[in-house]
Write a structure and sequence with these properties.
With 110 residues, the protein is of the alpha+beta class. The chain has helices at residues 7-24, 29-39, 48-61, 84-109; strands spanning 27-28, 64-70, 76-82. It contains four helices and three strands; from the N terminus they run αβααββα. α1 packs across α3.
């Protein structure tokens, strides 16, 4: 069995994972953290200190849009969703990932 990816690898992959999940549906930050962890069977377990700066940067870049919503407990949560620009970025990131993966797979076969 292989070893788990290191922190730098995990950080580099966070953007495409965030964009992918937000491409499916709108989510708040904590929900994103739990979804990434669950869907990766615990391989990708990001901390809030990693996630929120990425969300803020994606929002600043116009790739995601956010809105505040008051929950049943009167607590406010910030929900994020992809913008049209974010959908384009996700498509580009997926293409880059596939290209990267193909090259690595080819080199590992040698």
């Amino acid at each position: 069995m292989g070893s788990a990816p290191g922190p730098e690898f995990l950080k580099g992959g966070a953007t495409i994972l965030i964009l992918t999940l937000l491409g499916r549906r709108e989510m708040h930050g904590y929900e994103l953290l739990r979804s990434i962890e669950k869907e990766s069977s615990g391989t990708f377990a990001y901390k809030e200190g990693t996630l929120y700066p990425l969300l803020h940067q994606l929002e600043k870049d116009g790739s995601i849009v956010a809105r505040w919503e008051e929950t049943e407990s009167a607590r406010k949560r910030k929900f994020y969703k992809l913008s049209p620009q974010g959908r384009k970025l996700l498509k580009e990131k997926k293409e880059q990932w596939i290209s990267f993966k193909n090259v690595v797979d080819q080199m590992l076969k040698a």
